[in-house]
C-alpha cells in the first residue's frame, strides 16, 4: 500500500493544492452572490451551468487526454480554472457568471477525470478502495483549508479571487515536474454508458444520485449555513465539519468495501446519511455544536459514497479502460450535479434552511434502497 501511495505522491500534492483553490472559489462564489443580492434561483442557475460544463467535459476531455497525454491536459485545465475564476472577479454579473462557472466546471471535471484515472491505473483491486480513500482524504483536506483562507478576506473585493487563481496555478508544478511515470495513453476515448450499466447498475444509478447529493450541498452549503443563523466563521466551521466527517470516514469505508460487498457498504452509508440529514433539519444556529456534530455525521457519507461507485465500476476494468469508465461515471455524476443545484434551490425556497438536509435525506433513501435491491439481484 505504501509503495502505491509513493508512486502518486506528486499527484496527491497537486490534488491538495487544486482542492484548496476549489474550496476558496466555492466559498467566495456563494458569498459574493449573496452579497450582491442575487436570488436563490440565480445561484441555482449559476450552479447548474457549472454542472453543465462539468458534464460537457465527459464528452471532450477523453479525446484531449488521448491526443496529448495526462500531464499536458492537466496543465491546460488548471490554466482554465485560473482564467475562469479571475473572470468572475472582473465581471460580477449573474449571467456572465453562468458562462464563467460553466468553464470552471468543464476544467474541474477534466481535472478529476485525469486524477481518478491515474489513481485507478496505479491501484489493484485488493487496495482500490483504500487508494481512492487516500485520494478523497487529500482532496477533502484541501477543500477544508480553502474556506478558512477565504474567511480571512473580503468577498466583495477581488483579492480572494486572485488567491484562488494563484493556488490553481501553483498546482501545476508538482505534477508537471514529477519523475514518476504517468498513466499510459488510453486506448479508447469517449464513454460507454451501456457497458457501464451492464458492468455495474448500482454504480450507474449511484453516480447520478451521488452527483445530486454533493452538488446540492456544495452549491448551497454557504446559503444553508447563513439561513440557519451562522456567521462567516460559523459557516466555515460548518463546511469544515462536513469535510472532517468525510476525512474521518473515508478510510474505514474504503477499506470495508475492499473486504465485503461494496453494495452493502453503500446501503449502510445511505442509512447514516438519512439519519444525519434529518438531524440537521431539526436544529439551527441556536445549537451550533449540535449542528456541527450533525454536519460531521452527514459528511461521513456525502462525499465517500462517490468513491464507492468508482471503485465498484472499476473492479472488472482492463488496462486502458480506466479513462473510458471514468468518463461514463463523470457523465452520470455530472447529470446529477446539474439536477442537484436546481433541486437544492427549490428545496430552500419552499422549506427554508431545513429544505436542503431534507432533500439530502430523500436522495440518500433512494440510493440505499437501490443498492439493497441490487444485492438481492446479483451475487457480489
From TrEMBL:
Keyword Lipid biosynthesis listed: no
TM ranges: 7-29, 41-61, 73-92, 98-115, 127-149, 155-177, 202-224, 236-253, 265-283, 289-310, 322-342, 348-370
Keywords: Membrane, Transmembrane, Transmembrane helix
Entries under InterPro entries matching the protein: MFS, MFS_dom, MFS_trans_sf, MFS_YcaD-like
Gene3D superfamilies for this protein: MFS general substrate transporter like domains (1.20.1250.20)
Residue stretches making up the Major facilitator superfamily (MFS) profile domain: 7-380
Pfam families, A to Z: MFS_1
Entry protein name: MFS transporter
Amino acid at each position: 500500500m505504501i509503495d502505491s501511495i509513493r508512486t502518486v505522491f506528486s499527484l496527491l500534492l497537486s490534488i491538495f493544492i487544486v482542492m484548496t483553490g476549489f474550496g476558496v472559489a466555492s466559498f467566495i462564489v456563494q458569498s459574493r452572490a449573496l452579497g450582491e443580492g442575487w436570488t436563490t434561483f440565480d445561484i441555482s442557475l449559476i450552479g447548474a451551468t457549472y454542472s453543465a460544463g462539468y458534464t460537457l467535459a465527459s464528452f471532450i476531455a477523453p479525446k484531449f487526454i488521448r491526443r496529448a497525454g495526462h500531464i499536458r491536459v492537466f496543465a491546460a485545465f488548471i490554466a482554465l480554472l485560473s482564467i475562469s475564476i479571475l473572470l468572475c472577479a472582473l465581471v460580477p454579473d449573474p449571467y456572465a457568471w453562468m458562462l464563467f462557472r460553466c468553464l470552471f466546471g468543464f476544467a474541474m471535471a477534466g481535472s478529476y477525470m485525469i486524477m481518478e484515472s491515474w489513481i485507478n491505473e496505479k491501484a489493484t483491486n485488493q487496495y482500490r478502495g483504500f487508494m481512492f480513500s487516500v485520494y478523497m482524504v487529500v482532496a477533502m483536506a484541501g477543500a477544508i483549508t480553502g474556506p478558512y483562507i477565504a474567511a480571512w478576506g473580503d468577498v466583495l473585493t477581488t483579492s480572494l479571487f486572485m488567491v484562488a487563481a494563484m493556488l490553481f496555478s501553483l498546482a501545476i508544478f508538482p505534477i508537471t515536474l514529477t519523475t514518476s511515470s504517468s498513466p499510459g495513453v488510453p486506448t479508447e476515448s469517449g464513454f460507454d454508458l451501456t457497458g457501464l450499466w451492464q458492468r455495474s447498475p448500482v454504480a450507474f444509478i449511484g453516480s447520478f444520485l451521488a452527483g445530486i447529493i454533493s452538488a446540492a450541498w456544495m452549491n448551497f452549503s454557504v446559503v444553508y449555513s447563513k439561513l440557519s443563523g451562522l456567521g462567516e466563521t460559523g459557516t466555515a466551521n460548518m463546511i469544515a465539519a462536513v469535510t472532517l466527517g468525510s476525512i474521518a470516514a473515508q478510510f474505514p469505508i474504503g477499506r470495508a468495501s475492499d473486504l465485503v460487498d461494496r453494495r452493502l457498504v453503500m446501503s449502510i452509508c445511505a442509512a447514516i446519511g438519512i439519519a444525519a440529514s434529518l438531524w440537521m433539519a431539526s436544529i439551527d444556529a441556536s445549537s451550533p455544536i449540535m449542528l456541527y456534530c450533525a454536519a460531521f455525521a452527514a459528511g461521513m457519507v456525502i462525499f465517500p459514497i462517490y468513491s464507492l461507485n468508482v471503485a465498484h465500476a472499476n473492479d472488472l476494468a482492463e488496462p486502458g479502460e480506466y479513462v473510458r469508465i471514468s468518463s461514463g461515471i463523470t457523465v452520470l455524476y455530472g447529470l446529477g450535479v446539474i439536477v442537484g443545484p436546481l433541486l437544492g434551490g427549490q428545496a430552500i425556497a419552499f422549506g427554508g434552511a431545513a429544505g436542503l438536509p431534507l432533500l439530502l435525506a430523500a436522495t440518500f433513501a433512494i440510493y440505499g434502497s437501490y443498492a439493497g435491491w441490487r444485492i438481492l439481484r446479483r451475487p457480489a
